[in-house]
Amino acid sequence: MTCRVENTQTWILSYNEENRLEKVEKVSGTCSAPGTTSESWTSTYDGDGMRVKEVHFFNGTGDTTTHYYAGGSYEVQDIGGTNKVVR
Questions:
Q1: Strand ranges (E), 1-87
Q2: Which of 7, 63, 64, 70 would give a disulfide with 58, using CB separation of 3.0 to 4.6 Å?
C-alpha cells in the first residue's frame, strides 16, 4: 500500500501480489489518519495481467460505474446497471 498527497488531496494506492494496481482510494484525511473514502477505483486483471474490469464507486451517492475491457479496443461502460455505453 502506498499513500500520496497531491494538491492537498490524499490518495491510497493498493497493489496485488503481482504488483499491479488493484485499488485507488480518494480519502478525506491524511496518510497517517485517512478518514473516510469519497471515491474508489478497483481493477481486476486476467491471467495475462491485462486489466479487464474497473469499478468506480462514489461513496457520497452510492453510484457505481463499471468499465469492462476486452482486447484493448473494446470497452463497455455500465453506469449504475441501467445505462450502458459501448466504445
A1: 2-6, 9-15, 21-27, 37-45, 51-58, 64-70, 74-79, 83-86
A2: 63
**Residue 47: which domain range?**
2-86
Cell of 9: 488531496
pLDDT tens, N- to C-terminus, the chain (87 residues): 899 999 999 999 999 999 999 999 999 999 999 999 999 999 999 999 999 999 999 987 788 988 888 876 777 878 776 777 787
- CA 84 to CA 30: how far, in whole Å? 36
